[in-house]
Amino acid sequence: MSCILELEQVSCRRGEQDRSFDVSIPSFTLASGELAIMSGPSGCGKSTVLEMLGLVLQPHRIGRFIWQSDSDGAVNIARLWERNDDRGLSSIRAREIGFVLQSGGLLPYLTVAENIMISRRISGLPCSGYVNEISEVLNIVPFMARKPHQLSIGERQRVSIARAMAHQPRLVLADEPTSALDPNAADAVFSLMMKLVAVTGCSAIIVTHDQQRMNLGSARIVTATITESGTEFSE
Amino acid sequence: MMGKLRFIASQGWYDLRYDWRMSGILVASIAAILAPLLLLLGLKTGIVTQMRQNLLADPHNLEIIIYQNAHLTRDWFEAMRKQEAVAFIIPKTRTINATMDIVARRRVLPAVELLPTGPGDPLLESVRIPRHWSEVLISFSMAQSLDVQVGDKLRGILKRRVHGQQQSVELVLQVLGVVPEQALSRDALFAVVDLLTMAEDYRDGYAVPEFNVHAGISDHNEPRIYANARIYARDLESVASLAGQLRAQNLEVRTHAREIENMQIIDGTLTLIFAAVTLLSSLGGAMVFGGSLWVNIERKKQQLALLRLLGCRRGDVMLIPVLQSCVIAGAAFILSVGLYAMVAYFFNVHLPKSPWWPEAAICRLQPCDMVIVVLLTLMVVLLSSLAAGYRGSRVDPSVCLRAFQ
Q1: Which residues of B are less than 8 Å from A57 in CB distance?
Q2: How many CA atoms does the CB half-sphere of A230 hold within 13 Å?
Q3: Segments in B19-67 forming alpha helices (H)
Q4: Which of B155, B199, B201, B196 minimizes the C-alpha distance to B175?
């Protein structure tokens, strides 16, 4: 299987001068179709890692950061950040990454259907039956015409997953996708997401502080190790 | 590219619609500035136009009066007639009026003023101009006191004293028309210059064959000199320059310059006031609108960050508040024109009218004024939205990863 992500010595400095700490990834690769669970205690820098992987936070140090794009081949992310290439970074985010946020992150002025379609529209993809299929799997078809504020948190989260996958990205990044849900709903949402990842064959990185979720057979587990200078994420 | 623009525009539009309370407040805040400005501009244009029309409607305001006995030659009149600033000029035989006794239906009007006229006389736009010395126009007051109508005949009596002997001649004059009271309110006759010069010749002792008077001096050797003239300028602006030119020829002249000057001063003052009010309210409007947009961007930071996270570029996100502002400005303009139209209608119906120009609106806007107002509004709104758009485009996409809703 080919790699979609290759990182070496990627780190970012966070916090104020006295209490600053490094969040670093010494070495990490992700093959296509692979699932990685990233865990650690609150405040250790999980979100920072996700932002770096999601191309929205510029790392302070990059040894190597390669993105294997479907269309453009190997893209050197370090170069894009150096040139402050918003267009290049944005277009990778639009085409190849799907985001699932902690509490949905849906646009309040759009209906559920429009919220799901937005990822396809931004990357310029036409409508597709695929969207209906995943909507059925996630059981959100009945409220396609509603606005987000008319949904429960669990329903919003399922819509958010549909949006993250609607444009068939190569990588889904999920940030504590079940933390706002009660345990039963959390289980349901989590297993739905796992199912979709397996069916669609995309890669996924899921950040969670929930230790139970780490008993997933095939998933790679990346854990945070707190050192003197900061946090290191490694397997 | 068009698809992208449509996508961005639709995001802005859906957001405006969803957040209709805020959109309404923004529209109202711009209309609150725009509607009074339109009204002020309308009143200024209406009042100045009306004053100008009033002045123009009364041709006396274009008149330049020479109040001394002058020596004006035919050449002088020829030269004056060629000038751009001169609308009408005709010689007068005397400075203090040439007169004639008039008899009609046994009533006598002694020493009726005799005024020269000719084609293009600004006082006589609506009546037929006499061509022959036996044709006259009479003023409205004269028609009333003599009880004569168009087509009636008058008798004009001229007297002279030759070698101590009193002589007189009686002329038959046909009434060609009645001059409206607005043009002249006193008793007077309008006739061709020939009648005046012949009457003058008769008084001076000459023979006038046209009057059937063959006794008297027969040859007229000296070139004719006129004592005065009726002069009218082309427009209000040329009155002063024409008067100045005559003064430079040592002629003592008088004009209605003060009324014209008043109108020009009021025009200038109102324009200045309007410009100052416009400037102040545009600045205030830009600050209010820019500030509201800025606060709005802060409120919607999460949404903009999400669009950025999903792959919208900086420029795309910047475009959202700019497009939204255009829609808001358009809606505010339509609302303002509606409000303006209502108040202007009220003013036009209830404020007193000019007697000269009863159909004129007191509050009116010209299309070019409207275009200027639209462009100004759009400029102010776009400038303030650019600042907000820039702020929006700097939103860090990671904002929405940390906390949303």
Answers
A1: 398
A2: 20
A3: 20-57
A4: B155
Residue B43: which of B221, B222, B271 has the closest Cα? Answer: B271
Question: What predicted TM-score, i.e. pTM, was given to this entire model?
Answer: 0.71
Place of tokens 């609106």: B361
Kindly indicate whether the ipTM for this predicted assembly is greater than 0.95, answering yes or no.
no
Q: Are A95 and B311 in contact (CB under 8 A)?
A: yes
Burial class of residue B212 (count of CB atoms within 10 Å of its CB; 0-12, 13-18, 19+): exposed
Find residue A62's DSSP bridge partners: A10
| A-B contacts at Cβ under 8 angstroms | 82
Cβ-based contacts of A97 with chain B (< 8 Å): 311
Closest CA to B312 of A89, A122, A100, A69: A122
A3-234, which class in CATH?
alpha beta
A101 Cβ under 8 Å from any chain B Cβ = yes
Q: What is the pLDDT of residues A77-112, one digit of tens each?
A: 999 999 989 899 998 999 999 999 887 789 999 999
Q: In chain A, what are the domain boundaries? A: 3-234
Strand partners, A203: A171
Residues B156 and B109: beta-carbon distance below 8 Å: no
Shortest Cα distance, chain A CAs vs residue B309, angstroms: 7
Q: In what order do the strands lie in the sheet with B228-233?
A: B86-92, B228-233, B63-66, B253-255
User: Based on the number of CB atoms within 10 Å of its own CB, is B16 exposed (0-12), middle (13-18) or buried (19 or more)?
Assistant: buried
Q: How far apart are CA B388 and CA B379, in angstroms?
A: 14
Give CA angle at B397 (B391, B403), nearest 5°: 105
Residue type at A134 in one-letter notation? I
Report the C-alpha gap between B396 and A51 in whole angstroms. Answer: 11
